[in-house]
Structures are given as C-alpha cells and as structure tokens.
From TrEMBL:
UniProt xrefs under SUPFAM superfamilies: OMPA-like (SSF56925)
Coiled-coil ranges (or none): none
Protein name: Outer membrane beta-barrel protein
PANTHER family: OUTER MEMBRANE PROTEIN W, PTHR36920
Organism: Afipia carboxydohydrogena
Pfam families, A to Z: OmpW
TM regions (residue ranges): none
Family assignment from sequence similarity: Belongs to the OmpW/AlkL family.
InterPro entries recorded: OMP/PagP_B-barrel, OMPW
Domain of life: Bacteria
Length: 180
C-alpha cells in the first residue's frame, strides 16, 4: 500500500533551558508526505513514513524578548507496526505503535545575540490511529493521526545555555491510498 498525504505537524512544545521562566514555542508546519505500508498478514502491517518538516523556534516566558531564535528543517522518518481491522467493509481502521528518529537539518540562527546554536537528533516512541475508506479494490481515502515523542537536547552560545526541548508533535494527515 502506498499513500500520499498532506500533513499538519502541530508541536506541543515546552523547554527546560536552565533559565527561570524560559521556554520556547515551535511553529506548526504543513507539507506533503509519502508512506509505504507492507502487510505481513491481512491484519498486521509495517508503515514507513518520510517527510521533511520546516519549523521556527521562538523564545517564550523570560526569553520572549529574544523573539525568533532559530529555524530548522526536520527529517523525522517514522516506522509503525499496525493492526488493521478488516470486518468493517470499505472502512478500514488501524492502530499502531512505532519509533521515530529525527534529524535536525539546516539549523539557522535568527537571533543576533546567539552566536551558536544546535539541536541534537532524537529518538522517540510513536502512537498511531487512522483509517482508510476504500472506494474500490485499489483506491481509497485516508485519515491518519500520530503522536511523536520528540525531546532533543539544545545548546546555544557554545554551551552557555543548554537544555531539552519537548516538541512532541501531533501529526494529522489526510490523503489518497493505493493498495496493490
């Protein structure tokens, strides 16, 4: 099975930066996504997802006056083991659990007060629910929801400011399914 989706990445962001009252906000992002699902049985499948996701990181709380701190491009591939329910006719719901490894690419500082900045890559657990509504034997419509545990370490100004950012995004996707 192959799906092409439009996804919205909605971070549930917070941070512990070692500065009293300081946190961050991570922007939402909308982009295309491609996934491939391989069925081991009629119910058990492995879904692998690929998409890029651009985000801006903005200071909040006591560092709000700094405004936009940095921009980054994420490559967060996801693999989920899914259970597909098959007793509902054209309606094909599924649930899944998996893993995510996020690469933070193109980390560009936007705040002149920050000389250096780095977000480390991260590994996290993924929860997944969704469904396909099959129009015919091959074509269907898809709605998908994922929650990704994404908590990278960050550092600014050669380690003068360090901490952990909890991005923890909800990923909502809708698209077209083609089943072989």
């Amino acid at each position: 099975m192959i799906r092409v989706r439009a996804i919205t990445v909605v971070p549930d962001a917070s941070a512990n930066l070692g500065i009293a009252g300081a946190s961050v906000d991570v922007s939402k992002s909308v982009m295309p996504e491609l996934d491939v699902t391989y069925f081991f049985t009629k119910n058990i499948a492995l879904e692998v997802v690929a998409a890029f996701s651009p985000h801006s990181v903005t200071g909040t709380g006591t560092i709000e006056p700094l405004g936009k701190l940095m921009h980054t491009l994420l490559l967060p591939p996801v693999a989920t083991l899914q259970y597909h329910f098959t007793d509902f006719g054209a309606f094909k719901p599924y649930i899944g659990v998996g893993v995510n490894y996020t690469w933070f690419l193109d980390q560009s500082l936007k705040q002149p007060a920050l000389v250096t900045g780095h977000i480390s890559n991260s590994v996290g657990v993924v929860g997944n629910v969704g469904f396909d509504y099959m129009i015919d034997r091959h074509w269907g419509l898809n709605l998908d929801l994922k929650y990704v545990d994404m908590q990278p370490n960050v550092s600014f100004n050669n380690g003068a400011i360090t901490g952990k950012v909890k991005i923890n995004p909800w990923i909502v996707g809708t698209g077209v399914t083609y089943k072989f």
